[in-house]
Amino acid sequence: MDDASPHPNYVKGSATSQLAVLPLPTPFKPFLSSVKEPNTYSYHGPLFQLLAWLSSRPSSEPTSVRDPVTASIFSHTDATSATTTKSFLLTFLEQAASDCKHSSDCCWLDIRMTKPEDYFKIPRWHQDGNYFEHTTASTAQPRSKWATTLLGPSTLFLDLDFSDPELRDYVNFENEGAEWRSSQSDDPDNSVNKKKVDDYLRGKKGPKIVELELGQVVRFGYGQLESPVHSEPDMSGGDRVFVSVMFGFEGEMRELSKRWKVQWGEGWS
Ligand SMILES: [Fe+2]
Fold first, then answer.
1. Which one of 68, 142, 147, 251 has the fewest beta carbons within 10 angstroms of its own beta carbon?
2. Cα–ligand 1 centroid distance for 266 (angstroms)
3. Tens digit of pLDDT for each residue in 32-41?
């Protein structure tokens, strides 16, 4: 992790670090407070189309939404202002795209709207693996995802010392910690293994959970030995809305949408 030299574009990290926290472009004002029905909205396609959808201004609020992203948020949460919703998503996407040092031609946007659940009371510490085969080398910046939380607790990220070889027994991006996930048929929540890893990581000297504010954008690398170790937060206390985006060339992103059977260029809920 490289945060030795603070830069005005980052609260933490830099353009080349595995983990970076971006400054809030404007003070975040919550525009939704509950989830009516859990849902995940996904868009795989050209970024310009997504930006065009979000830039189209509703002729009247709240009934005229006109784009499928805002429509999905309206259907599954108590958000009612199309202008505020679109403007937040536009700012998020523009901030992420301008921070991205690879191709941002195409993207995968994911909006997870969830009701309380107990599974993450003990964190699921893991690193993200590769999502697709990369067509270009990543020298300017680790291949990354950008994320923000609109409602509820933020994703947990740990600062860890990757020079410790013992760490590999506990986190492993290639199999997302298969060792500690190994079949525990009598433990559907995998709590024994999650607790083992949580105790180990929190017992290490130094690792701290990175503080994030609502609406703040975090960038984290995936598919590499030193990709940030993270977990969903404890989601048992209330509803949550979490937004993430990753970028790539059209061929890379089309491969992903084909594998996941998501229609290219159309939103999917
Ligand atoms: Fe993850």
1. 251
2. 24
3. 999 999 999 9
